[in-house]
Design goal:
Elements (H helix, E strand, L loop, with lengths): L1 E4 L4 H7 L8 E2 L2 E5 L5 E5 L7 E5 L5 H16 L4 E5 L18 H10 L5 E5 L4 H5 L5 E4 L2 H10 L5 E5 L5 H11 L4 E8 L4 E8 L4 E9 L3 H13 L3 E9 L14 E7 L11 E4 L2 H10 L4
Parallel strand pairs: 1-2, 1-5, 5-6, 6-7, 7-8, 9-10, 9-12, 12-13, 13-14, 14-15
Antiparallel strand pairs: 3-4, 10-11
Helix pairs in contact: 1-8, 5-6
């Protein structure tokens, strides 16, 4: 198999294809941008009869266009199968139809289903409803084992697994189950346009809090949760998230309220040098799926 990557995902692609005798090799292409702003992709690898994967994001419009152009180019040049590897599936929170608002996930499903991609893989999609829009072409790989292993490595004692809202209860529950941790808690909350307010914490209280969620965006939800946990008597707090967006600067306040570390996968290329953030590589999970997926 050949794996191609958009520029920001070079490091992750290198990890996936690491090893001299690996079954996954890196493919190459060049992007030419003309004076008028139009672009063209030029393939640098032979792909006839090969299974191919394209690793990248879809947050920026040009990223989505490049993914689509490259998938079409690979199929045109004879690739047997083309898989989109989109670790963080942008717009996954736009999974419901609302009057007068665009429906992000539905629009993306229409685009991908009409593309040359045979299937798409992502990490911890926001919810199952969004995945169903893709008619079984979208696979969501769970990362919970990655975090469970890390928690065991840092040897935490007397901790409680906590979901920052009701939507994260199932996800956090899986982590607690893997860790055989009986101490569990969650928040009930209401969200407005200007702030997030946690109404009440439900669950156990221990010395250490392990908060688990899929996305850390601005950090507003987590800041509210952490403040309340400190008030309730938790001494140390660790945050584990699949997708660390780290938008703006508000999330940096987390260190002021007893957060010892934020563990996030490399699903989104890291853009901050904060020592608070500890990166966990999802390369092994992606590689395992690519090598086990059907070849036809």
């Amino acid at each position: 198999m050949l794996i191609f990557n958009l520029p920001e995902y070079k490091k992750l692609a290198q990890e996936i294809a690491r090893g001299k005798s690996e079954k996954i090799k890196r493919g190459g292409f060049e992007k030419r941008i003309f004076p008028n702003g139009e672009s063209q992709l030029i393939l640098k690898s032979k792909v006839a009869g090969e299974n191919c994967a394209i690793l990248g994001g879809i947050s920026a419009p040009n990223e989505l266009i490049d993914l689509l152009f490259l998938s079409d180019l690979l199929k045109k040049d004879g690739a047997k199968k083309v898989i989109a590897v989109v670790p963080y599936f942008s717009l996954s929170r736009q999974d419901k139809s609302e009057p007068d608002k665009s429906w992000g996930m539905k629009s993306l499903s229409n685009i991908f289903l009409s593309s040359k991609f045979d299937n798409i893989i992502s990490l911890d999609l926001h919810n199952e409803y969004g995945r169903k829009m893709f008619k079984n072409k979208l696979v969501s790989i769970e990362t919970v084992q990655l975090f469970a292993d890390q928690i065991r490595k840092i040897c935490l004692q007397d901790y409680c697994v906590i979901a920052p809202d009701e939507g994260a209860k199932a996800r956090a529950g899986k982590l607690a189950e893997l860790l055989r941790c009986r101490q569990f808690g969650y928040f009930k909350k209401v969200r407005t346009n200007n702030y997030t307010k946690h109404l009440k914490y439900h669950g156990d209280i221990e010395k250490i809090a392990v908060i688990y969620d899929d996305i850390l965006d601005t950090g507003a939800t987590l800041i509210s949760a952490v403040k309340e946990l400190r008030r309730l008597g938790f001494d140390e707090i660790y945050i584990f998230v699949t997708h660390g967006q780290f938008t703006g600067a508000k999330w940096k306040q987390l260190s002021k309220f007893g957060v010892k570390a934020i563990y996030a996968t490399n699903s989104i290329p890291k853009k901050t040098t904060s020592k608070l953030i500890k990166e966990l590589s999802a390369a092994g999970l992606i590689k395992k799926y690519l090598l086990s997926s059907p070849r036809k």
